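As a warm-up, study this chain.
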Amino acid sequence: LCSTHHGIVHGGKVVIRGTWSEGFVFEHPDGSAYGSPRVEPKKARVLAEVFQMLRALSFKEKEARRL
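Now compare it with the structure written out below.
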């Protein structure tokens, strides 16, 4: 990933699931596929903010994503 997209992923605004061998899936924080017209902008924004708050409270990235 370029530095911009790397920052977006670690900021919780894009979620990447999968592995190199299986392939990757890119999603919005609300679980909708990246690029999907079905994304709910308000829900995605709130979930990204919650993720950032959990990280600020010292939750590890994987823990914050699970919650």
